[in-house]
Batch of 2 targets.
Target 1
Amino acid sequence: MKILLLGKNGQLGYELAKQLPAIAEVIAFGRDELDLTDLNAVVQAVQTHQPNIIVNAAAYTAVDKAETDSVNCYLANAAAPAILANEAKAIGALLIHYSTDYVFDGTKTTPYEPTDTPNPINYYGYSKLMGEEGIKYSGCDYLIFRTSWVYHPDYGNNFYRSMQRLAKEREMLNIVADQHGIPNDARDLAADTVKLLQQPLAQLKAQSGIYHLTAGLENQTTWHGFATQIIDAMPEKTCKVVNPIPTSAYPTPAKRPMWSVMQRVLPA
């Protein structure tokens, strides 16, 4: 089995590039080798390598920057996945694509199900939703995995590592406490993906659809709660106080959903 992996230098892609070779031949590209905004290059990569499975872990993830850099965001998150889906359809490949909790508006107070109606409130979320729609419209075999609050404790730029760094520099931190979600370790997301891909390909194709790849509901928290867990576990730190603050005290260019807890739902 041959897997084409896109986004090998991202947090999730980094782990997938480490774990996927245990089950298949893997051809992996980072942004330097294959930029999703170059749609012709995306087509060429699929046609050249003819994979059985395409795993798209690449995305434009700068949520606030996306509000003004909408063209590049749309190319990477909406246009490129649609192109990948069309190419997957043409060669009979299965497309694995990762989406986001930000397709939802955060107005629920119970966990989001894959069947809930999306309603993004920022451009990043909109672009990811358009990526989902393009994949569905293509008619290819696909598994879309929505996930949330992705971090890697040892790699990349993320909330977890930022909290560790800041806790060594400052005595007090102010962290938003009214946005609710589920943090997800990229290592676990990759492991879940690898486990699923050990099923027969025909069985996976028969389960085409949208799923929620997240940790269990017992892991739901706020950014403040997550920060507190991270800092409490540090053996050496300068930070003595982690203050809870409302979203209104930390304005950002892009709105965030106040509730983006998703129910874990995966193929059988």
Target 2
Amino acid sequence: MKKGKLYLIPSPIGEDALHTIPAHTIEILHRLTWLVAERAKTARHFIKKTNPPKAISEFQITELNEHTPDVEIEALLRPALDGHDLGVLSEAGCPGIADPGARLAALAHRVGVEVVPLTGPSSILLALMASGMSGQQFCFHGYLPPKTNDLSKELKRLELLAGKNRQTQIFIETPYRNKNVVEQALSTLQPDTLFCIAADLTLPTQFVVTKSIAAWKKTPPPDLHKRPAIFLIFK
């Protein structure tokens, strides 16, 4: 039996940002029946906004998140193994990029299911593009330690990496901890180190600014509380 394909389908990284999803990506989404998503409720909300040609109830959505046991991954891929095209939706942005969808894509490669990435927004790449920092050498670290002392040590480590390798260091934080990240960056990093804050990407309230730590201390950033943000360091 011919196997189906696994489509990696990006979703908006902010409310009312459907315009960031290309028509071709939406066309493929509409023709699928089987989907895997971090949260079925969020996936249905997104699909409904795309004005699908069939009822939302016709989409068969199963969930995959960081807590899904490895033994359940194969069952999620079963539709593709049975010959049906299958889609993966991230909670926001691109599946497989800082996203549990990578686990399903990895299994697809092992069992011979074609993996097809579709175009859409990635907050990590958008932040890097706009930062003015090196796009030749960069590294994404995910979330940094939440405790203040550990966070300061990690920021210093990333600063050293940035200087030694001429490599942009990228990380993300839970929106309610943004203030602490900025405060620690301003108090920990060297005055000439470049620090970029990219918040609310693709939204009308988008804020992307790169300055030296010395410059940030003179003109602090706006309130970032509960605003999704990406942070970048370069030396």
